[in-house]
Design goal:
This protein is an all-alpha fold. The protein has one domain. The chain contains ten helices and no strands. α1 runs antiparallel to α2 and α6 packs antiparallel against α7. The protein is globular and about 50 Å long.
Length: 260
């Protein structure tokens, strides 16, 4: 673990706590936690990404268990989706040091703007379950979503939970609350898939990751309980706020890359 002063430790713990809460409600905690890790002196981008996965999996495991006990998500959907996401995340992690993030950011930015606009203009979207398919078509579509977003999580990471909620609501027709529950189970699998690649390659900073992970765990427990108590309307509001933050962050990154 790098030598850190007291202020840096406090800021990292606060980042982990906040990221855990946001991630448990609607995803997107990596938007907070990963940039905080990148500020640690001497840490490489791959080490930051790997250590972020360790911190995040502690939070996603907690929120997934909380959602499972209180919401009871459909495991026939969660199972195929999580397995495909794990495979995708492993593959994405293997490509993390080879493909520049700049190739993906403009595309993701356009998608997010479209999603945010559609969500705001459709106030009843995600208020209730309105599943578009049943049986194998439903499960294969869920698995496809898991594979694609899992690959993104292994490759880049921030906003994965949010993208999962987006897909579950807009493509499969879930309400926001059960979508968040399914997203947490799948997000746990994506974190595990990425760690299965990063750990053997020695990219994880264990002391730093466990410290942030403990804070992430506490935030995730609080966030999941709040989401369950307040329902889909609350999750929808947080969803719009987080998507807006992602748009601002990615928009700045794209603008900065174009200027460079």
């Amino acid at each position: 673990m790098p030598d850190l002063d007291t202020l840096t430790i406090v800021l990292l713990v606060l980042a982990g706590l906040t990221a855990g809460w946001v991630d448990a409600v609607v995803g997107g905690g990596g938007l907070i936690q990963l940039p905080a890790l990148l500020l640690v002196p001497g840490i490489s981008p791959v080490q930051a990404l790997a250590t972020n996965k360790l911190g995040s999996i502690m939070g996603t495991s907690t929120s997934a268990i909380t959602y499972y006990r209180r919401v009871g998500p459909d495991l026939t959907t969660a199972g195929p989706m999580a397995v495909a996401a794990l495979v995708g995340a492993f593959g994405g992690a293997a490509l993390a040091s080879r493909i520049p993030a700049e190739l993906f950011k403009p595309i993701i930015l356009v998608v997010l703007i479209g999603v945010a606009t559609y969500t705001v203009l459709k106030p009843k979207l995600g208020a209730h379950d309105n599943l578009r398919w049943e049986g194998n078509r439903h499960r294969w579509t869920a698995a496809g979503i898991g594979l694609v977003i899992g690959a993104y999580d292994g490759l880049l990471g921030p906003g994965t939970g949010t993208f999962l909620v987006i897909a579950l609501v807009s493509v499969l027709g879930y309400a926001f609350l059960p979508a968040s529950a399914l997203a947490k189970i799948t997000n746990f699998a994506t974190n595990l898939g990425a760690l299965l690649f990063f750990v053997p390659h020695g990219a994880v900073l264990w002391g730093l990751g466990l410290m942030i992970g403990a804070a992430n765990l506490v935030g995730a427990y609080i966030g999941a309980r709040m989401a369950v108590a307040k329902g889909s309307a609350f999750v929808r509001v947080i969803f719009v706020v987080v998507v807006g933050a992602l748009i601002v962050k990615l928009g700045y990154d794209v603008w900065h890359d174009w200027r460079s």
